[in-house]
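TonB-dependent receptor structure dump, as promised
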Amino acid sequence: MYYSVPQTGLQLALNANNITNTKYWVGAQNYLRLFPGTPRSYLFTTTYKF
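structure tokens r here:
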């Protein structure tokens, strides 16, 4: 989600991945070699446009 501050050119954004922190598998080579997905993560960014 993001918010643009009116008349300033400033934008704030928050991205969230795997919000519930669910364990999941993105792939496997065989039953012994599984590749887990990424855990919960957040990314906060600010952007200034001039």
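Residues 11 and 37 are 30 Å apart (CA to CA).
lmk if u need the other ones
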